[in-house]
Amino acid sequence: MPEDYNPSILLDVAQDYTENLSPEFIEYDTRRKGGSQYPLPDGKIIMLFLLTKKGNLWTTIRRFTQRKWEYYRSNIGNQYEIIIS
Questions:
Q1: In terms of CB atoms within 10 Å, which of 21, 33, 65, 77 comes out highest?
Q2: Residues with Cβ < 8 Å from 60, sequence gap 6 or more?
Q3: What whole-number distance in Å separates Cα of residue 52 and Cα of residue 2?
Q4: What distance in Å separates the CA atoms of residue 4 and residue 53, rounded to the nearest whole number?
Q5: DSSP state for residue 6 in the 8-state scheme
Q6: How many CB atoms lie within 10 A of CB 22?
Q7: Quick one: pLDDT at residue 30?
């Protein structure tokens, strides 16, 4: 995630499966500050493509549910303040 991630615009979303992702991409996406990794679920996932105000493209993965898919699809083009928990 770029340092200037707030705010970010949701550019697009895509569906895929965890097993199709490279180990390098999983490492990039799930790495936390301090070096640990967020556990990524197996199976179907949603990939979010976001753009910062400075033009940095970044991605994040979410577990797939139909509700989340519809939510993210309906919010393409919207700007978000990102909260890291």
A1: 21
A2: 1, 29, 47, 48, 50
A3: 8
A4: 8
A5: S
A6: 8
A7: 84
- Measured distance CA(62)–CA(60) in Å, rounded: 7
DSSP assignment string, 23-80: HHHHHHHHBPTTS-BPPPPSSEEEEEEEEETT--EEEEEEE--HHHHHHHHHTTT-EE
Q: What is the pLDDT of residues 33-76, one digit of tens each?
A: 777 777 888 899 999 999 998 999 999 898 999 999 999 999 99
The span from the CA of 65 to the CA of 41, in Å, is 12
**How many residues would you count in the chain?**
85
Q: Is residue 22's pLDDT more than 70?
A: yes
